[in-house]
Amino acid sequence: MNTFKHIKRDEIDEITKPLPTKHKALIQTAYFGGLRLGELNELKREDLKFKEESVEIILPYRTISLEEPRDLLKEYIDDWESEDEDHLWSIDGVTIRIIASTDSDINPRSWRYSRFLELDKKWCDEKLRDFFGLHEDSNVLENWRKIESQSSEDSS
Length: 156
Known about the structure:
Order of helices and strands: HHHEEEHHHHH
CATH class: Mainly Alpha
CATH superfamily: Intergrase catalytic core
Number of strands: 3
CATH topology: hpI Integrase, Chain A
Number of helices: 8
Largest sheet: 3 strands, antiparallel
Radius of gyration: 16 Å
Strand order of the largest sheet: 1-2-3
Oligomer: single chain
């Protein structure tokens, strides 16, 4: 049985629409960056490098460049007043579900999986591995494809 729910881009927009900037930035960064919960919790202001059209997010084992949610992150950082706080967020999966007011099966792992499904149509395995921070011998891509294949079979 599929433990992941496929969240589409428009659903992310719908989930985040009523939220304050901090929470919109959190969820959209998790989704568009395909970030693990631990990576979100480790993000600091200095890990974000704003370019004209994108934001570079510097993670321990990789750097990713995102067009979305560049403007939202910039707004959050510009309005951030906490000088004593090192990390951008301190959250867990339950907190994210509460923030998003969503079903319990919608969680950061589902967002990461959903982002994979979107990018798998466009990118080669090497680019996917780099983006998601996966080792060459990792079988995560194959597992996600198997989950999607099983989901497709179940729905037909």
